UniProtKB/TrEMBL annotation, chain A:
This is ABC transporter permease. Keywords: Membrane, Transmembrane, Transmembrane helix, Transport. Belongs to the binding-protein-dependent transport system permease family. Residues 16-199 form the ABC transmembrane type-1 domain. The chain crosses the membrane at residues 20-42, 54-76, 82-109, 177-202. It is a multi-pass membrane protein. It comes from Cryobacterium breve.
Length: 213, 445, 278
């Protein structure tokens, strides 16, 4: 095992970095998409219902099946991996953003409007900051989930640590196959922990002190 | 426990010599509770007798141990030291679940199980006691009637389909289901609005008049304690009993500064809720009839030296209250009733009477008895006299209080607190113990 | 503090329990007829089933009309598809049963007083474990117990225990303490309180955890093909390896439809089994 790590450490570091950056970029993209969508739907109960159904049903679609469906039109490579990871990352964030935004007491929004804040300003300065902790929880859940999905996405020959798992599988019984799989699995878990810690830190920095739990 | 319930009425009758009491007496004997990790005990050597068939209110600042004390009675919290004696029987070691099945327990908002109907909720304890279905169903209906809910309408509802006040009523019905001799209530009316709370309090008083259970009730609302309690126990930190006495005497003669502060300002006003209009002397009034010449009525009140005349109808119900000036301007007394007449019933409290007379222009109120018949006039001076009298009476009374039930305890606590704070003197439990030992002897025979 | 975090996370990761409750359309104050209320509460489920059936129909029509090569025709023969589907369902259900047998009693035990101190560490470990990629777990276990059905089942169980365990614990913890105290205060034994108060009130959250686990299992069972565990995943790998797009698409769609169907069944059960009065 140590030999394997020693021999391959450059490759491991590179793949880890790729994996991490794939996940983080997709998360940022997903957060933007989800918050915009949530801001569009949260004041209409019918749209809210649709958004919630989409995120609930989207999450039931197996990631492996989804990547298979994307390989068909898009072929192998980075694109299907990014789409899969971003898609699944969006869903929990969307749901939490909707819940967070629609859970704000109407009296608070009313008082913001009452002192002359515009609709958009209210959203930006009052509602989003108040919903932020809940949205951030959604981001953390997303991060944990898509770390694993990104590994499956490597099946489309996308970037990241998933490659170690699939290459170990394909060279089954061969030299270093177990080490390769172990590296992939443990690497993903470690990355997930690191990212979660970073997100917790981000939460500390960005949550207004008045609503910190 | 069923034995306890069964044996209890006879025993209470024997002890109290009065009929109708179905409650059991409770004795807390040197009870202490220490929670792990806390330096000071939550309840510190408390000895307290709770007389059968009475309502005892526990009040005190939050965290003073009153709720802990309450929960030790049904051993939801197990005492670290000391004994709990119910009707002469030491229940400290008996099976806690069996003990609790024989003690009604009411918590804030009723604590109803949301997934069970009203009937199922009420029927839980009878079912555990092995009653058959028909008997449970009959009991459920009977209890719903008792708490003024129509059984046909409410039996099959779920708690979320009830208002807060209704939930609380079902909570009381559930606690009474197996006809327990004791009812423990933990801030029972804390979660309902003030108007509903007053109604529920009145209903509890009515139910208690009928059932005469022993009720121990924790509240943070001193006015509620005054209204409901036969006895009030005022606790300080560590469940230190500061005063354990009747509402009258606590208001009239607070034991110390702590109690004074706790009562807060307006003790005199609070006392007004303890006295009813029927208990004070009413002044007479000159009456007149509709159709009489106003001048005749005026002549009569001038002769009597009064300022007003009360006009009553043929069934002697007051319809108008006329001043000299008004009479002077009238030709004939009309028979049109005055809708704003300041009237109070003879069963009202002095507090209500004072409210009424303060809004009337005459500074007094008309008192009516049964069928709204005119009884007399009550004025502010009468009320003030009543306050003064009851204050002096309270001081006087405390010397001749019925020692047997609980003042011994209070004095024991006070004496103990003076002698050695935090420790109750060992000899003080003697009255309670002797009572329980005679009860034991009786049970043995 | 720890409970609050626990709930917050379960509300999101453990299925969608937290989100669905306010979504109950029957809560609207507008007076509506009973039939309309029933329809409103079932509407989403009807739409979901209709969507599943329509997509399935579309897939069938496409397969019937598409110009398939002989090798694609053999792989996608109805009998073969049926075998793969049955294998897939078997894997899922067997793993689900094992998960229930393990996770529910464990969840109950961990919320009882003597073991309560273990709640936080167990959940922490389980959460870390959840971050492990499913594909990695499946392959690693195959190294350990050998390839085939049982290796696949074992890894599925490992993977799906968490949602059920967590929702069981959260479901039990969110029961109002005062109700438990009311039960104890009435003389119910702790077992009676557990079975007559706590578990019934935890049912909605627990069921949602079971549904989440089932959906997770259907998806993960598609990976069983990598360790010769059978199931619909073989269509996807075959499609990719041999560049047979119709096989790939059929496999992926069938897995997705199966997951949605299981989710639908779970929702129907939740809808029916939710205790009245909640």
């Amino acid at each position: 095992m140590w030999d394997f790590l020693g021999d391959q450490y450059e490759q491991i570091l590179f793949s880890s970095w790729q994996h991490f950056s794939l996940v983080v970029q997709c998360l940022i993209l997903a957060t933007v998409i989800a918050v915009v969508l949530a801001a569009l739907v949260y004041r209409n109960s019918a749209f809210t219902g649709i958004a919630n159904s989409v995120s609930a049903i989207g999450l039931t679609i197996p990631s492996f099946a989804f990547i298979g469906l994307l390989i068909a039109p898009l072929g192998f490579g980075v694109v299907p991996a990014v789409i899969v990871v971003a898609f699944f990352a969006t869903l929990p964030i969307l749901r939490n953003a909707v819940v967070g935004l629609s859970g704000i007491a109407p009296s608070i929004v009313e008082s913001a409007r009452g002192i002359g804040m515009s609709r958009f300003r209210t959203l930006l300065q009052v509602e989003l900051p108040m919903a932020w902790p809940i949205i951030l929880t959604g981001i953390r859940v997303s991060a944990q989930m898509v770390m694993g999905i990104a590994a499956v996405a490597a099946y489309s020959l996308g970037p990241g640590l998933g490659g170690f798992i699939f290459s170990g599988l394909s060279r089954l019984g061969g030299a270093n196959s177990l080490e390769s799989v172990l590296t992939g699995v443990i690497g993903v878990v470690v990355l997930a922990l690191i990212l979660d810690l970073l997100l917790v830190g981000l939460g500390r920095l960005t949550t207004p002190r008045g609503i910190r739990v | 426990m069923s034995e306890l319930i069964a044996s209890n009425p006879a025993e209470s009758t024997a002890t109290d010599g009065s009929t109708g009491i179905t409650g059991a007496s409770i004795l807390l004997d040197h009870v202490t509770k220490r929670f792990p990790g806390q330096a000071r005990p939550a309840v510190d050597g408390l000895t307290m007798e709770i007389p059968a068939g009475k309502i005892v209110m526990f009040v005190g600042p939050s965290g003073c141990g009153k709720t802990t004390t309450l929960k030790m009675i049904n051993r939801l919290i197990e005492p670290t030291e000391g004994r709990i004696v119910v009707d002469g029987e030491d229940v400290t070691e008996m099976n806690g679940d069996a003990l609790r099945r024989g003690i009604g327990y009411v918590i804030q908002a009723g604590g109803l199980f949301p997934h069970m109907t009203v009937a199922t909720n009420i029927g839980i304890v009878p079912k555990m006691l092995g009653w058959d279905k028909a008997r449970i169903a009959a009991r459920v209906d009977e209890l719903l009637e008792l708490v003024s809910l129509d059984p046909a309408l409410y039996r099959d509802r779920y708690p979320k389909e009830l208002s807060g006040g209704q939930q609380q009523r079902v909570g009381v019905a559930r606690a009474l289901a197996a006809d327990p001799p004791i009812l423990l209530m933990d801030e029972p009316f804390g979660a309902v609005d003030p108007i509903t709370r007053l109604r529920l309090q009145d209903e509890l008083i009515n139910i208690q008049e009928e059932l005469q259970k022993t009720i121990v009730c924790v509240t943070h609302d001193f006015d509620e304690a005054v209204k409901l309690g036969d006895w009030i126990a005022i606790f300080n930190e560590g469940a230190q009993l500061e005063q354990y006495d009747t509402p009258e005497r606590i208001l009239g003669d607070p034991a110390n500064e702590f109690v004074e502060n706790f009562i807060g300002s307006g003790a005199g006003l609070k006392q007004l809720t303890l006295t009813r209009v029927a208990d004070v002397a009413l002044s007479d009034a000159i009456t007149g009839r509709p159709g009489e010449r106003a001048a005749d009525v005026l002549a009569r009140i001038v002769e009597a030296g009064h300022g007003h005349a009360v006009i009553v109808d043929e069934r002697h119900r007051p319809i108008q209250w006329l001043s000299r000036r008004k009479l002077g301007r009238l030709e004939v007394v009309s028979q049109v009733p005055d809708p704003k007449l300041p009237v109070v019933g003879i069963r009202s409290t002095l507090n209500d009477a004072l409210d009424t007379m303060l809004v009337s222009s005459a500074g007094a109120a008309l008192v009516t008895g049964r069928r709204d018949m005119f009884k007399g006039v009550i004025d502010v001076k009468t009320v003030m006299d009543a306050i003064t009298r009851s204050q002096s009476a309270a001081v006087l009374e405390s010397d001749q209080a019925p020692v047997g039930l609980n003042t011994g305890l209070f004095q024991a606590q006070a004496a103990a607190a003076e002698a050695a704070p935090g420790e109750s003197a060992p000899g003080e439990a003697a009255p309670g113990e002797s009572a329980s030992s005679t009860a034991d002897a009786r049970a043995a025979q | 503090m720890s409970t609050r975090i626990l709930k917050a996370e379960a509300g999101i990761a453990g299925g969608d329990s937290a989100v669905e409750m306010p979504g109950d359309p029957a809560a609207s104050a507008v007076p509506v007829t009973r039939a309309r209320l029933v329809w409103l509460s079932w509407r989403g489920l009807v739409y979901q089933l209709a969507g599943i059936l329509l997509t399935f129909l579309g897939l069938v029509i496409w397969l019937l009309t598409a110009n398939l090569s002989p090798i694609e025709l053999t792989t996608l023969a109805p009998a073969a598809l049926w075998v793969y589907t049955v294998e897939h369902v078997q894997l899922t259900l067997l793993a689900a049963v094992i998960v229930l047998v393990i996770a529910i009693p464990l969840g109950i035990a961990l919320t009882r007083k003597p073991l309560r101190f273990l709640t936080a560490p167990v959940l922490a470990i389980a959460n870390v474990g959840q971050a492990a990629p499913a594909i990695g777990v499946v392959v690693l276990l195959a190294f350990w117990v050998g390839f085939g059905f049982w290796a696949a089942t074992l890894s599925l169980v490992l993977y799906a225990v968490l949602p059920v365990l967590r929702n069981t614990m959260v479901g039990l913890q969110q029961v109002d303490d005062r109700l438990i105290e009311a039960g104890r205060g009435m003389g119910m034994s702790s077992a009676a309180v557990l079975f007559r108060v706590e578990l019934p009130l935890a049912v909605p959250v627990m069921l949602s955890g079971v549904r989440t686990a089932l959906v997770l299992l259907v998806g993960t069972a598609a990976l069983a093909t990598f360790v010769n565990g059978g199931g619909l995943g073989i269509l996807i790998t075959t499609g990719v390896n041999l560049s047979l797009t119709p096989v790939l698409v059929t496999g992926a769609l069938l897995v997705a439809l199966l997951a949605l169907l299981i989710d639908w069944v779970g929702r129907v059960v939740e809808h029916v089994a939710r205790p009245k009065g909640l």
